[in-house]
């Protein structure tokens, strides 16, 4: 079942349950997927759908960080609730130990020895962690291990 089909079914469910907060997030997700489809001119692959969801999650993480820095705890709650909804559509997230293991394997495979080869390692790691780990976490682990 495609992501759009799943989102449409969940939108119907949220409408019947009168769950406005979930409904708003689902509609935003659906709009993002549809906009990506329109831009591409054809249906999205599962990988591309995952990219859209990862981008949506990243936007919400960034918003939470900014709202907390600005002292807007009232807005943080709403965005975090939206993150819970988006997480349902993402694959299981990798923990730090799993990401560290993937990075170590990539460093061995690429033969990287210094921070100058950061891009080479990230290029090897990101396809394996796409949608499964936060890019900032991957970035920090790569930097740490290349020191």
From TrEMBL:
GO molecular function: carbon-nitrogen ligase activity, with glutamine as amido-N-donor
Signal peptide as annotated in the record: none
Bilayer-crossing regions: none
One Pfam family cited in the UniProt record for this chain: YqeY
The protein's name in its UniProt record: GatB/YqeY domain-containing protein
